[in-house]
Amino acid sequence: MKFATRAIHSGEEPDCRNGFGDVVSPIHMSTTYASTEPGRATRGYDYTRTANPTRTALETKLASLEGAKHGLAFASGLAAETTLFLSLLKRGDNVLAAEDLYGGTRRLLVNVLSGFGISTTFADFTDPDALRSKFRKKTALLWMESPSNPLMKVSDIRLISEIAHEHGAISVVDNTFMSPFLQHPLKLGADIVLHSTTKYIAGHSDVLGGAVMLSDDALFERIHFNQNAAGAVPSPFDSFLVMRGAKTLHLRMQRHCENAAELASFLEERKEISHVLYPGLESHPQHRLASRQADGFGGMLSFEISGSEADARKFVRRLKLFALAESLGGVESLIEIPALMTHASVPESERRRLGINGRLIRLSAGIEDIDDLKDDLLQALKGM
Ligand code: P1T
Fold first, then answer.
1. Which regions of 218-279 does DSSP assign to beta strands (E)?
2. Which of 44, 197, 205, 229 has the most CB within a 10 Å radius?
3. The pTM is what?
């Protein structure tokens, strides 16, 4: 079945024999399930943290969207990350992570996992040769976002996964920015895909969620065990909301891509903007790789204001339609300054080295009418 059909039907086949034939998966709110025999779960369900039918429907859909054998849902993207790290790493291990990535992921690695004796080395994943020199004896896992948050760097997932495997490490791709509609890391050789489903998959800025998709049975068993043991699971209602959003992912994603591409070209022409980072632009350093690796360029872009940091703050305050807010991937357009918001937890020296300065602005293109979005940017740029 093609993507749009799977997005709508996977995990939600009406059950006319044992159920009521619901076309939409019911929200099973019960936390516990009665059984007729001690220790024998009713149709596989005994306690909702362990498994819940609404969550099962979501997990089936998520696996199907990524073309994976297994899907696991979590309470947030970071809950998924925490469970993944907990499951696959032990004291003494090293994580090799892309230096540009969501500030919360960096904070989890640097401020939390370090306390358990797990070290992280950061590297520029757009330079695979340099990456090889960063491996340590105990490097167990490679972590990348492509495109990265917020500098929109594109990494060669196939090549980097090969390098990981040469060194006996697991390759993980945080596919949040692209969504399963645009990019298929498992097909490119990655071992595990992770999503903050809070973003494009749910798509309406009204639910937190996370997901892990993979096909390796042994890795799945380890993460599945800790999904229950650590308990960072989504509620049945949250599972329903993520599933409901996922049904229109393909439609929304097409418009996100169209609007972002148009806004990127529009901003690149403006003298008030010094440069625009969007993989769909010919000026993007990895434009050819991005064209080859994914089926679109996504709805996210970053740009730098030509003026001062104060001008950048003035610009975002002047916008009327774009909400000044963290997060991304919802139907509404958002704007933020990563250095002050999503990446404030990254040490200033590191931000400076990477180029995440106070003039850098990140934009999540929503699916509104493009003319209204352009008009809003134009009025905010006036006189800059
Ligand atoms: O917020 P949560 O659902 O826990 O997801 C964390 C996360 C993981 N991976 C990526 C690539 C992300 O962008 C995020 C969350 N990001 C934002 C809130 C943000 O504004 O960038």
1. 273-277
2. 197
3. 0.98
